[in-house]
Design goal:
This protein has 232 residues and is of the alpha/beta class. The protein has 6 helices and 10 strands; from the N terminus they run βαβββαβββαβαβαβα. The protein is 37% helix and 30% strand. β8, α4 and β9 form a beta-alpha-beta unit. The chain is globular, with a radius of gyration of 16 Å. It comes from Fusibacillus kribbianus.
Length: 232
């Protein structure tokens, strides 16, 4: 079974509408929709925004549903000039940019006493996503890169430059690294898929509402095709 997490209802409602044989279970104030998508067993859930919601959601998918993989779908702000609005970033790894224990000698982003700085996504999931995106979203580009997460909406050019220079991130959002950490602790393969909705700079608050729907349409098309072709 595949777990698919979106932070907002807009990111998952089209997937829910395409599902069959659906049963809904509410846990931690989240609706877990279990059923089939193109004949494959899936659980689709809106986690809510932010790292805590995302981590709680992932743990429930592990404990209750025993998912074999977790895919986080949604939108993000671009951190690279060559990554345009509408393009897709597939996580090579994820990192919490607002984790700061430098006073204790840890590098920025390092969770104290964890054995890794970032959480690596599953190579097979990345490969499948690349192939599917070329097929269903031929008009956009797909990038592999580090996804940065924090409980902040980045809309400041100076902050954006710090994220790029410190972490070499490709995009920034609010959930992926928490999902990556929870998946890592449970030994579950994961992937964060992010369509770009804004440039994570001074124009972000203007770009986001205009391009949100367009970006989400790309991730929905990708999710539907990935479910058909994943070999777990």
């Amino acid at each position: 079974m595949i777990g698919i997490i979106g932070a907002m209802e807009e990111e998952v409602n089209q997937l829910k509408e395409a599902m069959e044989q659906v049963s809904v279970d509410t846990r931690a104030s989240m609706e877990f929709c279990r059923g089939t998508l193109d004949g494959r067993q899936v659980v689709v859930v809106r986690s809510g925004i932010g790292k805590v919601n995302a981590a709680v959601c992932t743990q429930i998918l592990a404990d209750v549903y025993g998912v074999k993989a977790v895919i986080n779908t949604g939108i993000a702000g671009s951190l690279k000039a060559q990554i345009d609005i509408g393009d897709i970033v597939l996580s090579t790894d994820t990192l919490q940019h607002d984790m700061d224990a430098e006073a204790f000698g840890y590098p920025a982003g390092q969770i104290p006493r964890m054995d890794t700085l970032s959480f690596r996504a599953d190579e097979e999931l990345i490969r499948c996503a690349e192939e599917c995106c070329r097929r269903v979203n031929p008009d956009i580009r797909t990038f592999r890169g580090r996804v940065l997460s924090g409980d902040q909406f980045i809309a400041d050019r100076e902050k954006k430059e710090w994220l790029v220079n410190t972490f070499d991130g490709f995009c920034t959002e609010m959930e992926g690294a928490a999902i990556g950490q929870a998946a890592y602790l449970n030994g579950i393969p994961f992937l964060v898929v992010r369509a770009i909705s804004d440039k994570a700079d001074d124009s972000a608050s203007m770009d986001y509402p205009e391009f949100e729907a367009k970006a989400i349409s790309h991730t929905v098309a990708l999710m539907k095709d990935m479910v058909k072709h994943l070999n777990l």
